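Let us work through a complete example step by step.
Step 1: write down the sequence.
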Amino acid sequence: MWAGLRRHPWVVDVAVGPRVMGPNELGWLETGLSALSGTGLTGGERLDSVVLITGHVRSLAQQSTAPGAETDTPEKALNALMTGILTDNSERYPEAAAAFASARSSSGQDDALEFGLARIFDGLAALVAERAE
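Step 2: predict the structure and record it as tokens.
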């Protein structure tokens, strides 16, 4: 889905709200639901899980294809834009200044997609384990 949205960013704008899904989108849904088959989650929970994952991927795809984000590293681009502002206003925004400074110096930057998906999957795994008990 990430690769498809990066290739065709217009999909983020047109595939919104209640609508009849096309064959590709329905195929993505089917794949997601199939991956959650046998987990003990209800049909509604499986649908909600796919919506949660899809929302995370769509949000980051939208950010990475927005005007001015002509880079494969949107977090680094944002960091570059914010560095001066946060340096000049570090007393007012100490947590933001520290977090951006830490991100600049670490290898964990530009990992929002994988980090978010891992946290979502951890939460779903915890729910599945709880249901199995």
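Step 3: interpret the result. The radius of gyration is 18 Å.
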